[in-house]
Description:
Elements: E1 2-4, E2 10-12, E3 20-21, E4 35-36, H1 49-81, H2 97-117, H3 121-130, H4 136-154, E5 161-164, H5 168-191, H6 194-197, H7 200-207, H8 229-239, E6 243-245, H9 246-274, H10 276-284
Antiparallel strand pairs: 1-2, 3-4, 5-6
Helix pairs in contact: 1-4, 1-7, 2-4, 2-9, 5-8, 8-9, 9-10
Amino acid sequence: MESVAPDGLSISLGITRTTCLWGQRSRANPTGRITVSPDVSPAPQADDPSEVSSRWLGFAFALVVYLVGVRTLLYLVGFLCNKFVPKGIDQGPVGGGAISIAIDLALLLSFFVVHSLMVRPVIKVRILRILHPSLERSVYVLVASLHLMLLFWFWNPLPVEVWSFDSILARRLVWSLNIAAWLIALIAIKTLQHTRLFGLRPAWRRLRRQPPDSDPMVATYLHARVRHPMYLGFLLGVWTSPDMTRGHLLFAASCSLYILIGIHFEERELVRKYGDSYRLYRRRVGGLVPRRLRLGGPSSGED
């Protein structure tokens, strides 16, 4: 902590160093006045050009990945709704039933396996041997986005209808629920800091030579109602369709199973990371369904 003397000299207040010298009565200082020395700390060294280039290249990479990730997420919404995108989940050439199911299952399983492996510590260690830690999340987002793009492109539609609403009122109601579901997911992503979730913020902080973000446990907005609002929004989004086909049903059922399994392991990791704080949070707040707090104390059940 520093203050600036009237003559522009820097005085350190004892936290880092002392630059004010207490004078004593002598020939050189007969009055015993305080002598303030100028701040003679060495000037900061100029940044290594290679380090500056590395930070800028890392930020540029993270920015591109951020844009790709956001676009892929929005494309996913359009893909499941069969709207606003070149190819929806029920659009495109229709192949043989068994072959199409096998291809679609292979695409989903490939995404699930790679998505799960990318969060394993052994994979993270290998990534960190090559790239700066600030780019780890960007690599994860890039791999997930590319995998989803392959799924969009090679998905084989199974257009046989499982259910379809003919009533205009019913269709509007289902579409309203679908819009609300995706809004829940997007708001949850924003609450989690979308720039950090998509890997941009770590690279930005590195570019500005700031320390990495801490990861405190904070339950605000939707997270004060349910522990996993992003998953809740996604699950509602994949199931609320006025025209459910076999292909859409296959996608929805597979993703739902994967998310529920993922929540189980994620909860274990969160308990390990935050301990009793997260256990108390889990007792008070439902996982995917809001839980009304009991008067006089938290609920004793767990999702």
